[in-house]
């Protein structure tokens, strides 16, 4: 059984690893091109490319998915099945239709809810208590194809993007391995999605992490967890410097005690910031140009912040 795997993020690695351990023949991994990163703008390879190279798997990085040369290369590999996990691009039908057993996408949401590029962030932002991994047949629309199987998992109130991604990736890998034999034997009939219930996510931008202190502490806490580590939840100090909130904890306070965004000391001498409802204890921060540090140490070096307002 020859597989081609399409993926560009860390989400795909546990899935790819389980496929390899299950003795499926992975003839190629298709991923995004190397891109400039950081201040130096040096080219950075997708993490899944590095993993695949270490595993001795052929890597293909097309600049254009509709390029005839790319199509010919995929055809020449004679794949029986294509597996897709967080690839990040719409794959043309002429590619999807090549394998005998179709092209299966592993998507971390309870489709048709949260279609698109940022389902995990949106699950956390929405305060949902459970999510799902969906295996679906892929067509040329975004997360639109018929569903093969879904399996739910919990969402912890301390989950970050990283922890929930890891849980969903592990679940997706397990679900794929136990479902593929039934799929290949023709024992599963895919079910069309109810497209009237579809909700959509967008590509996350850096500005999405900007904190609005008029929101409740619960909402801002979810923002910090959903956008960790990138783009991060951030605010601005009175001097205009950016301050990332890496770890926070909700603190119940009486309404109207402080203006939203006001820095104050808790009874235990810890840094906290008032929100539209309740407050956040600041457990770990990173000032622009500096290293991460705990909130108490940061405030010890910035005592002038007490009773001042942070800027949105």
Task: Give the C-level CATH assignment of the largest domain.
Answer: Alpha Beta
Structural class: alpha/beta
Distance between the termini: 54 Å
Order of adjacent strands in the largest pleated sheet: 5-2-1-6-7-8-9
Estimate percent helicity: 25-40%
Overall morphology: elongated
Mean pLDDT over the full residue set: 96
Q: Can you tell me the residue ranges where pLDDT is under 50 for at least 5 consecutive residues? A: none
Q: Provide a count of the helices.
A: 8
Instruction: Please identify which CATH superfamily of the largest domain we are dealing with.
Output: Formyl transferase, N-terminal domain
Q: Kindly estimate the percentage of residues that lie in beta strands according to DSSP.
A: 25-35%
Largest sheet: 7 strands, mixed
Q: What is the β-strand count?
A: 15
Total domain modules: 2
CATH third-tier fold name of the largest domain: Rossmann fold
Q: CATH architecture of the largest domain, please? A: 3-Layer(aba) Sandwich
Report Rg.
Answer: 22 Å
Oligomer: single chain
N-to-C order of helices and strands: EHEEEHEHEHEHEEHHEEEEEEH
For this entry, give a set of tags.
alpha/beta, Methionyl-tRNA Fmet Formyltransferase, Chain A, domain 2, 15 strands, elongated, 6-stranded antiparallel β-sheet, methionyl-tRNA formyltransferase activity, 2 domains, Rossmann fold, 7-stranded mixed β-sheet, 312 residues, Methionyl-tRNA formyltransferase, Formyl_transf_N, EC 2.1.2.9
Describe the 3D structure:
Belongs to the Fmt family. It holds the Pfam family Formyl_trans_C. It catalyses: L-methionyl-tRNA(fMet) + (6R)-10-formyltetrahydrofolate = N-formyl-L-methionyl-tRNA(fMet) + (6S)-5,6,7,8-tetrahydrofolate + H(+). Residues 204-303 form the Formyl transferase C-terminal domain. Residues 1-179 form the Formyl transferase N-terminal domain. The chain is of the alpha/beta class and 312 residues long. The chain has two domains: 2-197, Rossmann fold; 206-305, Formyl transferase, C-terminal domain (Methionyl-tRNA Fmet Formyltransferase, Chain A, domain 2, Roll), CATH 3.10.25. The chain has eight helices and 15 strands. It has helices at residues 12-21, 47-54, 68-76, 93-96, 119-125, 161-184, 217-226, 295-300, and strands spanning 2-7, 25-30, 35-37, 42-44, 59-60, 81-85, 103-107, 130-137, 147-154, 233-236, 242-251, 263-265, 271-274, 279-287, 293-294. The strands form three sheets. It has a seven-stranded mixed beta sheet with strand order 5-2-1-6-7-8-9. Strands 10, 11, 12, 13, 14 and 15 form a six-stranded antiparallel beta sheet that branches. A two-stranded antiparallel sheet has the order 3-4. A hairpin with a 5-residue loop joins strand 14 and strand 15. Helix 1 (12-21) packs parallel to helix 6 and helix 5 (119-125) runs antiparallel to helix 7. It starts with a strand and ends in a 12-residue tail after the last helix.
């Amino acid at each position: 059984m020859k597989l081609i795997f399409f993926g560009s993020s860390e989400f795909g690695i546990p899935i790819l690893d389980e496929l390899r351990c299950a003795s499926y023949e992975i003839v190629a991994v298709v991923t995004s091109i190397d891109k400039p990163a950081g201040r130096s703008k040096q080219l950075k390879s997708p993490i899944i490319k590095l993993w695949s190279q270490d595993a001795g798997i052929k890597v293909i990085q097309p600049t254009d998915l509709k390029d005839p040369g790319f199509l010919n290369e995929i055809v020449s590999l004679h794949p029986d099945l294509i597996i897709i996990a967080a690839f990040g691009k719409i794959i043309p039908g002429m590619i999807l239709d090549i394998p005998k057993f179709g092209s299966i996408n592993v998507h971390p949401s309870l489709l048709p809810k949260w279609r698109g590029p940022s389902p995990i962030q949106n699950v956390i932002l929405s305060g949902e208590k459970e999510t799902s991994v969906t295996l679906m047949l892929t067509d040329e629309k975004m997360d639109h194809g018929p569903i093969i199987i879904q399996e739910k998992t919990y969402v912890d109130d301390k989950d970050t993007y990283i922890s929930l991604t890891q849980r969903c990736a592990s679940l997706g890998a397990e679900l794929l391995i136990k479902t593929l034999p039934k799929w290949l034997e023709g024992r599963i009939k895919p079910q069309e999605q109810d497209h009237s219930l579809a909700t959509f996510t967008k590509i996350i931008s850096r500005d999405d992490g900007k904190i609005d202190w008029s929101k409740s502490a619960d909402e801002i806490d979810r923002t910090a967890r959903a956008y960790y580590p990138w783009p991060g939840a951030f605010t601005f100090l009175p001097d205009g410097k950016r301050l990332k909130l890496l770890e926070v904890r909700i603190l119940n306070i009486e309404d109207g005690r402080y203006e939203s965004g006001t820095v104050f000391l808790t009874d235990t001498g810890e840094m906290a910031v008032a929100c539209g409802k309740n407050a956040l204890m600041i457990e770990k921060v990173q000032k622009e140009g500096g290293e991460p540090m705990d909130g108490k140490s940061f405030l010890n070096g910035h005592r002038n912040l007490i009773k001042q307002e942070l800027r949105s």
